[in-house]
């Protein structure tokens, strides 16, 4: 098969498409579509210290089972994993081997391209908002980075859970996107705006029971200040400085809970469990996949990585 490989860290120029032996495993999937995530770009750059080289990168995928148990042969599946592309070969290839327990049927409503954009964004969104923050009906959630992939997924999940959604970002979600349709209010991050005060003003002074910070670092002070008494702050990433100052007196008086969420801790099998919970929402139309901005054949994978590194709006998909 052909696969994207890197044996040293660096910019996308270190990536090469080469011929490799077909993978062996409990189940083998022919990849029809695999999206490129910012974490894939960071992986190639050497920012994921646990990655073992040489490696085929790529976390998210959708395809057809071509090897494994008879009952799965020909099944259309989707997947993602925090181990995929880091400690085991990933999805930016013609074939991928996975454990049978990692097989999850793709929602019929989604095309392969659409299904391949779901993995990381919706898994970390669900893991943070539902499984970690335990968001419940009637609560208010403020989503920092709502115009991004994870933030937009959180907004959809929160609306389905019956929560009130306040979106926070430098710009509103684009008209016609799923995130734009589900947020109840929007707070702009711009000079002169006290974001935490705006959130508190729109919640009767209380703040949000859950604040999902999909940005982190530069947004942490405002996110912390927006948490309601006994509320939960979810942190999944860092932009800018890795450290922030926290007013511990205010923290314990407010009884704030700060919860870190790392999707790379969910391997293929654990991520498949989340995808099985998400699938009915996509088949019903409650959840919408993220828009695909660009598609590339495997031979142009370096250009796909460069597009993501350059901050392209929307998802980038490789079609092996």
TrEMBL record:
Q: In Gene Ontology terms, what is one molecular function of this protein?
A: oxidoreductase activity
Please give the superkingdom of this protein's source. Bacteria
Keywords, A to Z, come to: NADP
Q: Please state every residue range assigned to the domain named Enoyl reductase (ER).
A: 10-318
InterPro entries named among the record's database cross-references:
ADH-like_C, ADH-like_N, ER, GroES-like_sf, NAD(P)-bd_dom_sf, Zinc-ADH_QOR/CCCR
Q: Which Pfam families match?
A: ADH_N, ADH_zinc_N
Coiled-coil ranges per UniProt: none
What name appears for this protein in its UniProt entry?
Alcohol dehydrogenase
Species this protein is from: Mycobacterium saskatchewanense
| Origin organism lineage | Bacteria, Bacillati, Actinomycetota, Actinomycetes, Mycobacteriales
């Amino acid at each position: 098969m052909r696969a994207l490989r890197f044996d040293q860290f660096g910019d996308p120029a270190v990536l090469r498409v080469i011929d490799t032996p077909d993978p062996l495993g409990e189940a083998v999937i022919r990849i029809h579509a695999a999206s490129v995530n910012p974490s894939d770009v960071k992986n190639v750059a050497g920012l994921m210290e646990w990655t073992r080289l040489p490696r085929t990168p790529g976390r998210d995928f959708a395809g057809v089972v071509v090897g494994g148990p008879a009952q799965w042969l020909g099944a259309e599946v989707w997947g993602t994993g925090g181990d995929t592309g880091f400690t085991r070969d990933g999805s930016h290839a013609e074939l991928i081997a996975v454990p049978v327990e990692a097989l999850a049927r793709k929602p019929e409503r989604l095309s392969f391209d659409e299904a391949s954009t779901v993995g990381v964004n919706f898994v970390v969104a669900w893991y943070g908002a539902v499984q970690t923050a335990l968001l419940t009906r009637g609560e208010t959630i403020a989503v920092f980075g709502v115009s991004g992939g994870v933030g937009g997924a959180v907004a959809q999940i929160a609306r389905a859970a019956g929560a009130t959604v306040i979106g926070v970002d430098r710009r509103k979600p684009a008209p016609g996107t799923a995130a734009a349709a589900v947020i109840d209010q929007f707070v702009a991050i711009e000079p002169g705006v006290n974001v935490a005060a705006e959130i508190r003003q729109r919640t009767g002074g209380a703040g949000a029971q859950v604040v999902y910070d999909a940005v982190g670092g530069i947004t942490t002070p405002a996110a912390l200040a927006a948490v309601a008494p006994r509320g939960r702050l979810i942190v999944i990433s860092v932009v800018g400085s890795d450290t922030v100052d926290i007013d511990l007196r205010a923290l314990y008086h407010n009884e704030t809970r700060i919860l870190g969420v790392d999707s790379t801790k969910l391997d293929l099998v654990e991520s498949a469990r989340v995808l099985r919970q998400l699938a009915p929402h996509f088949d019903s139309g409650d959840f919408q996949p993220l828009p695909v901005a660009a598609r590339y054949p495997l031979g142009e994978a370096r250009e796909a990585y460069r597009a993501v590194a350059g901050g392209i709006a929307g998802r980038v998909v490789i079609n092996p």
